[in-house]
Every structure is written in structure tokens, then in C-alpha cells.
Amino acid sequence: MKFFTALLLSVSAFSQEFAQGWMGEFEHAAKQTHALLEATPEDKLAWRPSAGVRSTAEVYMHIVQGNYFLLRSAGHPSTATLPKTFSNKAEIAKWLKDSQDAVRTAHAKAEMKKPAKFLGKDTTVEGIFLRLLVHSHEHMGQLIAYARSTGVVPPWSAK
Amino acid sequence: MVRQVALLLVSVSHAQTPELGQGWLPEFNLVSRQLIELAEATPGDKFDWRPNATARSVSEVYVQVVIGNFLLSGRTGAGEPMGLSLLPKNPDQAITSKAEVVRWLRMSQEAVRTLFPRVKPKAKVKLFQQDTTAEAVLLRLLLLNREHYGRAVSYGHMLGVPVR
Question: Is the CB of A131 less than 8 angstroms away from the CB of B21?
């Protein structure tokens, strides 16, 4: 069992938020995605694993789009209008941070048990916030694999 | 923009993924099914592929999920997960073939589903030397699955595996 724990703790410095509930897990993903973006050279942002698949920059912006879309579904619409093109690292970092700030603000005042509709089905606000979190973690995982493939070492692994 | 994203999310998934946004168990069932489908769609000779020498191989990514399912469900205070005692000592070195990966994925997922009804969400438990609750451990388990599914999807794209 010690072996398993060591394996799962390989994310080291970022693991204080682990298993501490929704906001802790959200902050964990937010920190890691920012750290990974920071470590990615500008010229790697256009890299994609194969034709027709999202580039590195597009995955980051997909997280941003997902955050705003899911917030809207949870009853917290934003007036943010995303640009049609984006490739600049600073610009992507700003969009990512702004969308995450919007999530933090909405989560603090959300009525979790309130009924909501998502993709035409009945659910609760809590169910949509769970989807938002799951969406962020899936694409963080995708970005970690992209980083590994382009020679970028995730900063938390390098420590 | 919102309509575009909605269309995107709907087009990729809704017909096949009615579990989206429906809570913990539906989300767990969804990612479990997607992991199995992706593992089954990956050719057997690609399970030792890795993007570089220090990164996890395809089989190791899936075995992380297996380990996470057993370890984390076992920390919810609901008892020992079924099949944990059968898990090899160094699972990432012992479970490497496609057939074994898929078999262990299924076993670990079944272990989680069997324990789930017995979990008391607000029960106080310890994980990584920190106080927490059983529901927070379940959330961690779900997110570990999703993160590694994201990695497996990327590997799939790099290997030309059709990803749904």
C-alpha cells in the first residue's frame, strides 16, 4: 500500500488540495494548468498530436470555453466574448485566469441543490459544477501528455 | 460563443453520454466506459509505447487508474475493495498486456461500484495524512480517472487510435 501512495503522490508540491473537496480540486487543476502553460515555450503552442486534433493553445482555450459554457448552464452567465483566434501565451494565460476567477466567484454564491437543465436533461447546479471540474481535469491530463510529447517537463515533476 | 461550445459538447457526446452533468455515479460510469472503449480500441502492440523515455507508457497510464480505484475507494471507510488482495505487488510492471489492462480496469471499476452504496459521504477519513471526508475521496477518485482518460486520449491521438 505504501507503494500505491508513493505513486499517487508523485504530484508532490501540488497535492495539498488533494481530496479536500470541490474548491481544493479546482485550485489544484488551476495551479497545474497555469504552471504547465508557463513552462511551455511559445513555439510549442501550435503543436498538435495529429491533424484534426486540438493544438496545445486550442486545448487551453477549450478549458476557458468549457468554464464559461458550464457556468452559464449553472445559471451564472458571463459577458466575456472569446476571440476567434488566439496563439499568444500571455493572452491565453489571461483568458484562463479570468475564466477561473469567474468560476470561483460563481461557486461561492451558487445554490448547489437548485434544479437546472444541462444538455436538455434535468440535473442540479451541483451536477453542472461537478462536470466543470471533471472537464478541467480531463483537459489538464491531455495537456500533460502534450507536454511530455513536446519535451516540456511539468514543473511539479521536475522538483 | 456559448452556442458554439454547446454544439461542440453536444456533438461530441450527448447521444452516447447521457451521464454528463448528472452527478458522481453517472460521471464515474461514463469515464469508466470511455476508458474501456479506448483501451479496447488501442492495438495490443501499442501498450508499451510512451511519448518519451521518462513518461508513462500506455499501459502505465491505465494501471494508474486501476491503482487509484482500489486505493482511493479503500480509503472511504466503506471496507476493503473487492479484488484488492489479488492486485500484483508492482502493478505497473505486472499488468502490461492489453487483455490484462482491460481485465484489471473492469475489476477495479466493479470494486468501486460495489463499495459506493456503502460509502457514508460525510464520514471523516484520512488520506495522505490529511483529514477529509469520504465524499472528497470519491471526488479525487473520479478526477484521477478523468485526468488519466485525458492522457490516454492524447496518446490515442498520437498513435492514430480512433477516439470517440
Answer: yes
Count of domains for chain B:
1
Candidate from B18, B67, B158 with C-beta closest to A121: B18
Interface ipTM: 0.91
Structural domain boundaries enclosing A97: 52-159
Which of left, alpha, beta for B50 (phi over 0: left; psi -120 to 50: alpha)?
beta
Residue B90 lies in a domain: yes
Chain-centre distance for alpha carbon A155:
16
Q: What is the pLDDT of residue B116?
A: 97
* Cα torsion B11, B12, B17, B20: sign: negative
pLDDT of B17 reads: 82
pLDDT digits (tens, 9 = 90+) for B87-103: 999 999 999 999 999 99
Contact B139 A5 (CB under 8 A): no
User: pTM (2 decimals)?
Assistant: 0.92
| Residue B13 included in any domain | no
